[in-house]
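Saturday, quiet lab. Running sequence design on the structure tokens for the scaffold JK sent over.
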């Protein structure tokens, strides 16, 4: 049985963006409602849940969803969709700014974290400052930087490479099963944050999607400090009484 608090030591932390550090849910729902009406997709809510955590380009190209195969149209629709999400006024999730501020409080530790997002560079450069999230010192990884998106391991392999660390010595922080799968496949430890999914979604993983290493309710349950050249995390794995997702 896991202890209520666990001490984890890693070389670096790789954070997902939407659903992990920021809440963009109202804008995402609004954007999918618009696209569902225009592309005659029926109810937009199942699509929101099904596609969360994946690259928008992969989703819009999907033959069972929008089936956009024209490159020029795809690029313009990605931009239009992301603008709709931004218009939904994304905000930082509880504990996110505080945790990143802790990471930036030590000269060496501030170079040991980055953001790995399935969104475009355009979206990330708009949303990160809009939500008052600190910009990673080493930059960040977006959908534009990889040829394969989550659940493939490529984005997190690229994130570790950007920081100059071994991915197997990293902690991936994610809110989506597809992101947890990407982190696990990359060989990193994974921390699932129950903001967009229930704890049971991570506890009852399939054989294909391995269980995350740790599960927490939100980022208020994590503290960090710099210890012997490593990032040391104290993780409170206790669940909230109602066991519900935040979003």
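Result came back. Writing it out in full:
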């Amino acid at each position: 049985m896991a202890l209520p608090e666990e001490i984890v030591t890693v070389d670096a932390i790789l954070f997902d963006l939407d659903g992990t550090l920021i809440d963009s849910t109202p804008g995402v729902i609004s954007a999918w409602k618009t696209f569902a009406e225009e592309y005659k997709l029926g109810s937009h809510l199942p699509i929101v849940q099904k596609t969360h955590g994946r690259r928008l380009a992969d989703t819009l190209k999907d033959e069972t969803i929008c089936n956009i195969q024209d490159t020029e149209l795809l690029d313009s629709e990605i931009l239009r969709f992301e603008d709709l999400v931004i218009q939904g006024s994304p905000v930082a999730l509880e504990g996110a700014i505080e945790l990143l501020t802790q990471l930036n409080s030590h000269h060496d530790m501030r170079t040991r974290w980055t953001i790995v997002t399935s969104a475009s560079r355009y979206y990330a450069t708009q949303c990160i400052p809009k939500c008052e999230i600190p910009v990673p010192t080493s930059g960040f990884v977006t959908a534009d930087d990889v040829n394969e998106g989550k659940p493939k391991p490529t984005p997190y392999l690229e994130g570790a490479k950007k920081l100059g660390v071994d991915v197997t010595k990293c902690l991936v922080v994610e809110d989506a099963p597809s992101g947890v799968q990407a982190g696990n496949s990359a060989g990193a430890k994974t921390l699932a944050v129950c903001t967009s999914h229930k704890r049971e979604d991570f506890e009852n993983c399939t054989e294909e999607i391995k269980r995350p290493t740790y599960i927490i309710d939100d980022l208020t349950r994590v503290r960090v400090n710099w210890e012997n050249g490593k990032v040391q995390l104290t993780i409170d794995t206790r669940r909230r009484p109602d066991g519900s997702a935040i979003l």
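Notes for JK: Residues 205 and 211 are 6 Å apart (CA to CA). The chain has a mean pLDDT of 92. Ask whether to fix the surface positions before the next round.
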